[in-house]
Amino acid sequence: MRSIRYSLLTLIIAFVHMVSYGQKIDRFEINTSKSLIRWAGKKIVGGETAGTIQLAGGFLG
Fold first, then answer.
1. What is the pLDDT along the chain (61 residues), one digit of tens a residue?
2. Alpha carbon distance 33, 58 (integer Å)
3. Cβ–Cβ contacts within 10 Å for residue 55, how many?
4. Residues 7-18 as b or e (16 or more Cβ within 10 Å = b)
5. What is the spatial distance between Cα 11 and Cα 7, in angstroms, rounded to a whole number?
6. Which positions ≥6 away from 27 have C-beta within 8 Å?
7. Which residues contact 9 (CB under 8 A, 6 or more apart)?
8. How, if at all, do strands 59-60 and 28-29 pair?
9. How do the residues of the chain divide into helix, strand and coil, expressed in percent and rounded to 5?
């Protein structure tokens, strides 16, 4: 029974290690001079508004 627990624990640790360290995550820096978010909103009873947001910086990934 004890050896089954150690085997299971070893498999779990190996799996977590493969999943967490085996994946490469791409990270992209945002070009703030070319990035702009345009938004629009509408009310249920009528009327609408719109605007833009200039990004100050950040990463996507």
1. 667 777 778 878 877 777 666 566 778 888 888 888 899 999 889 899 999 988 888 887 6
2. 12
3. 13
4. eeeeeeeeeeee
5. 6
6. 59, 60, 61
7. none
8. antiparallel
9. 35, 30, 40
Quick check: pTM over 0.90?
Answer: no
Q: Which residue segment(s) compose the domain that 6 sits in?
A: 2-60
What 8-state DSSP symbol labels residue 6?
H
Number of domains composing the chain: 1
CA distance 37 to 58: 14
One-letter amino acid of 31: N
